[in-house]
Amino acid sequence: DGGITQSPKYLFRKEGQNVTLSCEQNLNHDAMYWYRQDPGQGLRLIYYSQIVNDFQKGDIAEGYSVSREKKESFPLTVTSAQKNPTAFYLCASSTLTGDRETQYFGPGTRLLVL
Amino acid sequence: SQQGEEDPQALSIQEGENATMNCSYKTSINNLQWYRQNSGRGLVHLILIRSNEREKHSGRLRVTLDTSKKSSSLLITASRAADTASYFCATEGQGAQKLVFGQGTRLTINP
Q1: Residue B34 to residue B47: CA distance in whole angstroms
Q2: A31 phi and psi, to 5 degrees?
Q3: CA separation for the pair A21, A23 (Å, rounded)
Q4: What is the pLDDT of residues A57-67, one digit of tens each?
Q5: A15, A108, B25, B64 — which has fewest CB within 10 A?
Q6: Do A42 and B103 make contact, defined as CB atoms within 8 angstroms?
Q7: pLDDT at B1
Q8: Residues β-bridged to residue A23
Q9: Which chain A residue has the Cα nearest residue B97?
């Protein structure tokens, strides 16, 4: 059953704490993306990666970090430098050949600050 | 910066009616895509239209693209209660390999 998974579904962060959101895909996709969605808003790109061990900043990368050690995994860390982290975080993936334009999304992680 | 702007922000219609949503963008694009999001869920790809295409159909969906006006529309015909969701347009710019999303249209279909 191919797809993209995100965990946890809900995550709570205390002040000054770093938290890591998981994103895994078994679609054999090369590219992976992290987006942030605020209530009633569209998606804004945080980071993206087109190949293992390489990634690029998106439009709102400050306060976030990522790694891409494996093709299947693209974890996002929300650092204490991100002062307004409460949002819905969506991970997506796409192939770089054939139907490369279409992105496939995970179910999302909702991050709340305690 | 968000390139796509969608209109209206919210739309409420009766089941069986047609729903039309519009998207405008600012720079040249390779393609424009429409995605659907049910409340609290991930996005699902609906349809893609390339810059050299003017109209595309998929089931009850019809998408048009006018590159001279930098605008697109999504028409859902014979709407159903299950079509209730938010709909987003996303553009891929020329030379870019990433999408820029609009703010979405919240569609409510009343039974």
Answers
A1: 6
A2: -100, 140
A3: 7
A4: 999 999 999 99
A5: A15
A6: yes
A7: 46
A8: A6
A9: A101
